[in-house]
Design brief:
single chain, alpha+beta, C8orf32 fold, 4-stranded antiparallel beta sheet, 4 strands
């Protein structure tokens, strides 16, 4: 029996040796094929560029590690960049949603305020006077509040903060514009400059039933014509002495403006002669933009229509974030294209390996 076992073992050993030498073992053919297939799948998916270039090398493992892939600047670099861009996009989307939520909350508050302050059945000129009267007794100092974050203080306080805490001429003009807009009355904000080109004062101009009406929300001052109607900003700009005449007339008749004492009006410090629709002296960017516009449009640059939405910090932030989101989406597209271009050589080599492996398999 022992001899039979030895014979069987020896026969099995001879059989194995003969199969190894002849290379006819099916297992020996299948294992490399499986390895080639795995390397091909990694190269196609872009997760292991080393497997395509170093397959069969005893110094390199078949499946490269994550650290080696990152150090070689492989497709993992593009994946990280895409994740960063997507996280940034999601964060901006949350900020945008928060800003819009605050916007609609303030909108409801201001709508309620407008219904209490303004008689919607009155003509636009009377509604303007009602708003000017509302400012009487409100603090006249600059409102230092900001929307959302301290670094956004250049957007100035919201209209709701002005209604709650008061504000200077620019703050009051912002609130007056929005209250009129809520009642369907069109109005525009203007900036009064000194002769040297410094922004000094803010007022509004309202489209009334009798034409345009210049109004000063800080002092509650407006300029009626003797023949009826009101003086516009353009008329006061061409005839700046009308302002002084109006103040002298009110002082002589012991009339008071709707929001402040007439004695406090700086006749020598405020002039309508250099009025513009926008405060171009706010920053270096706006000053440069004004120089470009004035060189091409001339005096028409001073009368460019000023939209109301920049008076809403929440809308400014929402539109600004929307612009950044467009840039992020463009960046994602560029990264995606770069990733596809980077992985194309590995895909081609993987296809060649796949076809070579398929041809080497036994029929």
């Amino acid at each position: 029996m022992c001899g039979r076992v030895e014979d069987r073992n020896s026969s099995f050993s001879r059989s194995s040796d003969s199969r190894d030498l002849s290379g006819a073992s099916p297992l020996a053919e299948v294992v490399p094929a499986l390895a080639i297939s795995g390397a091909m799948e990694d190269a196609m998916s872009g997760t292991n560029p080393d497997s395509a270039s170093h397959f069969g090398s005893p110094e390199k493992p078949l499946y490269g590690s994550r650290s080696s892939l990152t150090s070689l600047g492989g497709p993992n670099r593009f994946a990280i960049t895409q994740r960063i861009l997507l996280v940034t996009f999601a964060f901006l989307l949350c900020v945008q949603a928060f800003a819009l939520t605050r916007y609609w909350e303030d909108r409801r508050y201001l709508t309620s305020l407008a219904s209490r302050v303004i008689d919607s059945s009155a003509p636009p000129s009377e509604q303007t006077k009602q708003i000017l009267t509302y400012f009487r007794g409100k603090p006249r100092k600059s409102n230092m509040s900001y929307f959302m974050f301290p670094f956004l203080d250049f957007l100035r306080p919201t209209a709701r903060k002005v209604a709650e805490q008061g504000g200077d001429c620019a703050d009051r003009s912002r609130l007056a514009l929005i209250l009129l807009q809520l009642h369907g009355v069109s109005a525009e904000k203007w900036t009064l400059y000194t002769k040297e080109g410094r922004a000094r004062h803010s007022i509004i101009e309202v489209n009334t039933e009798q034409g345009k009406m210049a109004a000063d929300p800080l002092f509650g001052l407006f300029f009626p014509k003797a023949s009826g109607g009101y003086y516009s900003v353009a008329e006061l700009r061409s005839q700046p002495d009308l302002v002084r005449e109006r103040v002298v007339e009110m002082e002589s008749e012991h009339q008071e403006p709707l929001a402040a004492q007439i004695e406090r009006y700086p006749v020598n410090g405020i002039t309508y002669a250099y009025a513009k629709t926008m405060n171009w002296s706010k920053s270096a960017v706006t000053r440069f933009l004004y120089r470009v516009l004035s060189s091409t449009l001339g005096k028409q640059a001073d009368d460019l229509r000023r939209p109301v939405w920049p008076e809403e910090p929440a809308l400014v932030i929402t539109f600004g974030i929307g612009f950044l989101q467009v840039l992020l989406l463009f960046g994602l597209l560029m990264v995606r294209r770069a990733a596809v271009k980077h992985s194309e050589p590995f895909r081609q080599e993987a296809r060649l390996m796949s076809s070579s492996a398929a041809s080497s398999l036994p029929a």
